[in-house]
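Quick board copy: two proteins, each given as sequence then tokens.
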Amino acid sequence: MIPFFVLDRRASLEILKGLFLKFPSLQFGLMTHANVSPQFIELFSKFPSKTQLKYVDEIQKNKREINKLLKRNIIKISDSGVFQKNGSNHTYEELFEKYVQLKVHYGIIKDVLHDMKATLKSAEEAINVYEDNGFKRKFKLIGVAQGNNADEYKKCYEMLQDLGYKYIAIGGLLKRNGNSNYVTVRSEELLQQTISLIRDEYSPEWLFVLGVYHPSRHELLDELGVWGADYKGWLFHYDEFYRNAIKKLEAQGRINKEIREKYQLFLKHKLTYLQTKTPENRKKYWESRKELDKTLKKYGTSLQELRFREVRERLEKEVVAKMLEKETK
């Protein structure tokens, strides 16, 4: 089961390059969308070679060896960006040209949430453009099964096969969490029913489930025979007190008295703000945060380094550990 990290910013590539380097034998995925900036297209298409390697300890290999090592085991996917804030107004010709520019291994059709008929109509147009315009040589096209229940998903999957799709993902299993930007799985029961029904009926060698990856679901997806799933929230869950990173820098002798004092002040004001939520304490917290960053930069580090280290630490413990466990069985 390959986790695909969803991203559209340079810093995300920098964080992941440091993580991937530590485990070069594992396969990881990167997933982006067609609405990213030209600058990001350039970075993503050439990843890992044009992405900086930041805040990584004990690198013994040279830059060329590192990039060659990582490139072998990284798989890239893009979707149309139809579910992004600004949606997608690309024609299929334009969309597929974006996929070529991004140099993805797989490109996803424009699907319509929970609407099997509209998705199939889009899928038919997509595969015609794909086959008639030479895109077949550039990337693998992914159809998307949509539906409102497991039987509809199965029917949509079958009709996509009839249209000629070899690679089919399951979409539409997410829902927005209240008014926030966060999404969760609509129903764990629907997820399991749908994947099991398609697996038992068609025994696909390749099965991707859109948006459902979470470390807590890794073993389940693996048991259900899922090849890959994308992970949207990976960048936002880490220790924002930076305890692990501070501990690591202390062990390296990089934390002095001034940094320690600013860090303790930051902790004090942050905890007070979290307990009270008052505007006054929020201001004190942000001021102490700025002061900590300023002091860290004075001694050759930054809050960015602390964040990079915390995100990597969490991914290593919660995602990579599960992948390594599978390899040893």
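And the next:
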Amino acid sequence: MQFTNLFLTFFHFSILLLGGNLIGGVHGSTGHRHQKEKLYSKLFVFGDSYADTGNSRKTVAGSWKEPYGVTFPGKPSGRYSNGRVLTDYIAKHLGVKSPVAYRWMKYAGKSIRHGINFAYGGTGVFDTLITDPNMSTQIDFFNKLIDGSTFTKHDLQSSLVFVTLSGNDYGAYLAKGGTNQGLPSFIATVVEQLAKDLGRLHSLGAKKVAVTALAPLGCLPRSTSLNSFQQCNADENTAVNLHNLLVQQAVAKLNNETKDSTFVILDLYNSFTIVLDNKTNYPGSLKFESPLKPCCMGTSHPFSCGDVNEKGEKMYTVCADPKLTFFWDNVHPTQAGWNAVYNTLQATLFQQQVY
């Protein structure tokens, strides 16, 4: 399969099938921590649907439709899952409440003391095919809050910054006429911009920044549906590996420049692979039935989870037990899936003193 088709299969990474058109319990073991070991009291989040907890607009985002949120909190909450997402698990790891979504901040009251989530599903480091703010604009929002009345630079010294980048830039590039030949160069451009955004967060005062590597996008149901959810697309994952290699190099350079190991990579590629291969050598790991097949699937289109017809009748089915499936929809894990991924990330989080 050509790269054009490969990347278009996972774009819009988070805004799920609207009107038939493609638009893009934290119970894991967290180890025993003593209060004196707690380094971070706030969590600030930037990125896309793997981190979004309610910023995406209700008028366009599938995450605000039933059956999203059926496991937690029992109704749609803007999370692209049946329940909790990676942000919630990172917050649990830190021992803080999951930070309020930026767009609901004015209603949050004292809850903002736990931080703010600026992530919007479907976005990237550049403008994608949606109008929600890209990562640079999300950081602009953050910058305006560091004014002494909401947050101070001192607050950032006791905060973790969490950044997700999950592939939307590449889908937008190809949808706008980008070529296969130009894709490797564009990948380098995306990572270069990501590095600028990470550096800016450090310049604003961030003490520790955790950024995700790309997950194995060739293993997403949107790609594996082509072979009845039986096998990952190796060619697509090869392109992902180029992105991740460049991210590793960029983070190493940033850490060398800052001299304080500010930046750490959360390797979602490795984590997804371990879980999807059903390697249960991590606490709380589950063996998932048909791990590449999503729990929520459309009846008229395989990826129309949450769609209803003009009569309000459901155009999708949901599996009997989401705890037994890794993927919730065409690109996003279930709460159980994120729990399993988080379990594989804990060694990195503790090793890098992200607790």
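Board note added afterward: The domain at 3-12+33-287+339-351 is CATH 3.40.50.1110 (Rossmann fold).
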